[in-house]
Amino acid sequence: MTENGAMPPPARIALRNLLTCLCVASLALTSPAQLPKQEISQETQDLLQRQMSWDDNQPGKNNSSGLYIQFSEIDETTSSGKRVARYRAYVFGAPENKKYTLTVWKIGSDPHILSNNVYVNAKGLLMARKPSPEQENSDFLGDNEFQLAVQAAQAEPVRYALTSSDKELLVYGTLVPFPLEGNDRGCRLEVRLAVPDGGAVLIYADGLPANTGIPFQMLSVGEPMTGKFSVNAQGHAVTPEFPALAGMERNSLRVTLTTPECSVAIELPWGKGSYHPL
C-alpha cells in the first residue's frame, strides 16, 4: 500500500468538506484546566475539537446507523529499528455495492487520501478490489485486503475515515497502536497526543458513573491542577488539556483519577524532543 501525497482538486474538496463536518459536530466538554500564563490559539482549540469529533463518531446524516471502523492487528515487525504494526480494518454493516475512499489523519499533518478504490466484503473487511463470490465471507484475503501498516509513538492516535463515492456514507475510526492507559476495577484512563510534542493532549475516561461530573488531578512542571470530566450516559468522558508552560521546553504530565471505586494514574512526557516513534 502506497500513500499518495498529491491530491487532485476533487480530493482536496472532499477533505475540506470532511473537516467542515467535524467542525460542525459538537461535544459536551468541560473547559480545560490550563496552566498559568498559557495562551491557547483558536486554531489549536479548533484542531482538538475536530479530533474529538472524529473519535466520538456519533450517528448523523451520513452515518445514521452509527457505523465505525474497527481494527484487528495482524502482526508487528520492525523497520529501521522502529515497531510497525499491521492491521486489517472492518466496517461491519457497510454496503457492499459501493466504492469507497479511505483517508488517514496523523497528528502534526493534514488528512490525506490513501486510496480512492476501496471495497468491503460481506464481513465488512476493507479490500483493495471488489470481492469475488468466494471472498465474501473471508477474513484472510492476502493481497486483496486493504491492510494498514502503522508506525507511531506511544499515545499517538492515527485516524481514518471511509467515505462512499456517492457521499452517502462517512465513517470514522481511531487507532492507537501503543496506548498510554491505566485500568483499575472497571475504570479506564487514557491520554492521547493531540500534537507531536504533547503541548496539547486529549484525556479519555471510561467506566465512570453515568451523567456525573468527576474530578481528576494533573501535575506538570510542578504546578498542580484539577480538571473535571463531564461523564455521558455510557460512563465515557473526554477533555482537552494543555500541559506546557510558557518558557518551559520539556517536562511531563501526570494525570490521576481517584474515585471511591478506582484509582488510576498515568504519565506522559511533553515538549522538545519528546516525540519518539517506538
Topology at a glance:
Elements: H1 9-24, H2 42-56, E1 70-79, E2 82-90, E3 100-106, E4 112-120, E5 126-127, E6 148-150, E7 158-164, E8 170-175, E9 180-184, E10 187-193, E11 201-206, E12 213-220, E13 223-230, E14 237-241, E15 250-258, E16 263-271
Antiparallel strand pairs: 1-2, 2-6, 3-4, 3-7, 4-5, 7-8, 9-10, 10-11, 11-14, 12-13, 12-15, 15-16
Précis, in short:
With 278 residues, this protein is mostly beta strands. The protein is 11% helix and 40% strand.
Structural commentary:
- This protein is mainly beta.
- The chain folds into 2 domains: 9-175, no CATH class; 180-271, Immunoglobulin-like.
- 11% of the residues lie in helices and 40% in strands.
- It has helices spanning 9-24, 42-56, and strands at residues 70-79, 82-90, 100-106, 112-120, 126-127, 148-150, 158-164, 170-175, 180-184, 187-193, 201-206, 213-220, 223-230, 237-241, 250-258, 263-271.
- It is globular, with a radius of gyration of 19 Å.
- The model is unreliable at 1-17 and 19-31 (pLDDT under 50).
